[in-house]
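Milestone 3.1: sequence recovery, worked example.
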């Protein structure tokens, strides 16, 4: 039989429990892990909270890629409107 890794569950904000793979960050103030939904509800990114620590996750790479694409589209629109 193949050995399977045990699933590590962690305590998240608001008393939730989630798999560690679903957690995107950690809050030093509340001493809990945060899922995407927790981060949105607590507005960690919008506030620029210094207690928030990003965990290594593919989500952050995808978010950065989307932001870069958005900035490129804005730049292209500006160039077209300015006649450059």
């Amino acid at each position: 039989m193949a050995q399977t890794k045990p699933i590590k569950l962690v305590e998240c904000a608001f008393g939730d429990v989630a798999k560690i793979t679903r957690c995107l960050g950690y809050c030093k103030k509340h001493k809990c892990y945060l899922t995407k939904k927790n981060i949105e509800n607590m507005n960690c990114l919008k506030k620029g909270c210094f207690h928030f620590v990003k965990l290594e996750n593919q989500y952050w790479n995808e978010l950065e890629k989307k932001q870069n694409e958005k900035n490129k589209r804005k730049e292209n629109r500006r160039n077209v409107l300015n006649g450059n």
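The first helix runs from residue 36 to 42. The chain has a mean pLDDT of 89.
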